[in-house]
Amino acid sequence: GHPYVNVDLLSPPGITRAASLNLVPSRLAEYVSTPLLHTVSDSFVIVRHPIERAVASYHHLVKSDPFHEGMTLEDYARSPYAEGDWMTRFLSGHEGGGEVTEAHASMAKEVLRRKAAVGLYEEMDDSLRRMRAYFGWDIPMADGSQSKAFAEQQYASCQRQVMTGPAGSHGDGSQSVSDSDALKARSHDNMALREGDAAYALLSERNRYDLELYRYARTLFARQADLPISLAEEIKPKDETKQWPPSRNCVENGRFSA
């Protein structure tokens, strides 16, 4: 039969067990995913503007639930459905409710700084290129006759379909210029709010620390631009049976600065 991995990455004990089993060095899994970012040592995070994220959540709510069909964006911003500092809570492990403080904001920034290569939703093309370099992902070849250029073209087409929809085109056969252009257009639609609008002010207040974190993420994104090679290959131990380092500071690995 096929090899399989039986680990629980939704809890800290499960992550500890996966590490004790050398899950990553074993290469049994092509990738692993967990919402508990503050417990892992090596990650790539895509960050989106908090207000844009909130507006997108509003559109999803009113489109998916007929009960909220008549809800305005300002109604949403005043309702318990509107998120509040979601990313700060997520990164600091403070998702159970309660007030978000400066301490949580500082922890969230430190998690990004120490444990993540940062991508930006509005810079998706560059972010995905960095993700490939960061993890050392090669584009698989279907067979020996397939050229690297053709594989790259197939990869780009697949990526475009995932990010912008099945067609990946404008309906007349012309292709979108890039994933980032499509996402930026979508972001522009979601960002119909202006800073003087009541809903914008309400959402900004609810996401005060997330806005601060987003600005910090943009700074990290600019400072991490010197990521030309696979850091995964750099830190891989010569002896594949040994565990990878339990933690790695992206700022102190010789390629990033803060």
Question: Care to give the gist of this entry?
Answer:
The protein is mostly helical. 49% of the residues lie in helices and 4% in strands.
Describe the structure.
The protein is mainly alpha-helical. The protein is built from twelve helices and two strands. The protein has helices spanning 12-20, 23-26, 50-64, 73-78, 86-92, 102-115, 124-135, 148-164, 179-190, 198-206, 208-223, 231-235, and strands at residues 43-47, 116-120. Strands 1-2 form a two-stranded parallel ribbon. Helix 5 packs across helix 6 and helix 6 packs parallel to helix 11. The longest helix is centred in the middle third of the chain and has 17 residues, at 148-164. Residues 166-178 and 228-258 have low confidence and may be disordered.
Number of helices: 12
Oligomer: single chain
In one word, what is the shape? globular
Q: State the strand order across the main sheet.
A: 1-2
The total strand number stands at: 2
- Determine the strand fraction and express it as a percent band: under 5%
Computed structural class? mainly alpha
Average pLDDT score: 74
Distance between the termini: 48 Å
What is the string of helix and strand elements? HHEHHHHEHHHHHH
How would the blueprint of this fold be written?
Blueprint: H1 12-20, H2 23-26, E1 43-47, H3 50-64, H4 73-78, H5 86-92, H6 102-115, E2 116-120, H7 124-135, H8 148-164, H9 179-190, H10 198-206, H11 208-223, H12 231-235
Helix pairs in contact: 5-6, 6-11
